[in-house]
Amino acid sequence: MKIKRSIFLLAAACLMFAADFSMVLAQNVPAPGSATVCTGDYMMIDGVCQPKPLVGGGNNSLTGATTLMGLITVILKYLLYFAGAVAVVFVVVGGYQYITSGGNEESAEKGKKTLINASLGVVAVVLAYAIITVITNLVTTNR
Fold first, then answer.
1. CA-to-CA distance for 73 and 65, rounded, in angstroms?
2. For residue 6, is it within any domain?
3. Is position 11 within any domain?
4. pLDDT for the residue numbered 114
5. Which of 34, 69, 82, 84 has CB atoms 3.0–4.6 Å from 125's, for a disulfide?
6. CA–CA distance, 42 with 65 (Å, rounded to integer)
7. How would you class 104 by CB atoms within 10 Å of its CB: exposed for 0-12, middle for 13-18, buried for 19 or more?
8. What is the DSSP letter of 61?
9. How many structural domains compose the chain?
10. What does the buried/exposed string (b/e) look like for 120-131 if buried means 16 or more CB atoms within 10 Å of the residue's CB?
């Protein structure tokens, strides 16, 4: 029962950290009358370069998807985050089984199989994420 609870807590922590957190960086206040231009995703607000407000939560959130393709992409990426977290949890479980086998061949073999399958799962999730990103960039590129 402890292992199941630990796996659940680890998966919940992985999902929490996989969420879309935006970083806000402080910027120097320009001197009065200077012609400072904000670059990238920043705009001048009260003389300070600040991040542009995200309408609807941004492109990487469910509320920020403006097209069907964008919504499908966001949903698939979140599902892949979850699948990746589960695969990593199984890598940990397989390693634990292997290490604690105590010379028992049957338990060691079970741990090895779990490790191999979970590692293949991690590779599959990473490749699927890369493929979805490439296809999305190809399809949504303005020509």
1. 9
2. no
3. no
4. 92
5. 84
6. 21
7. exposed
8. S
9. 1
10. ebbeebeebbee
Q: Considering only 31-35, 72-76, 134-138, which range has the smallest mean pLDDT?
A: 31-35
**29 part of a folded domain:** no
User: Which pLDDT score is estimated for 15?
Assistant: 58
Which tokens hold the place of 52?
């542009």
Residue 91, amino acid:
V
Top-confidence residue, 123 or 19:
123
Task: Please choose, from the candidates 15, 21, 13, the residue with its C-alpha nearest in 3D space to the C-alpha of residue 60.
Answer: 21
Q: Which domain holds residue 68?
A: 60-143
Band of residue 8 on the pLDDT scale cut at 50, 70, 90:
low
Q: Is residue 124 part of a domain?
A: yes
CB contact at 8 A, 94 and 111? yes
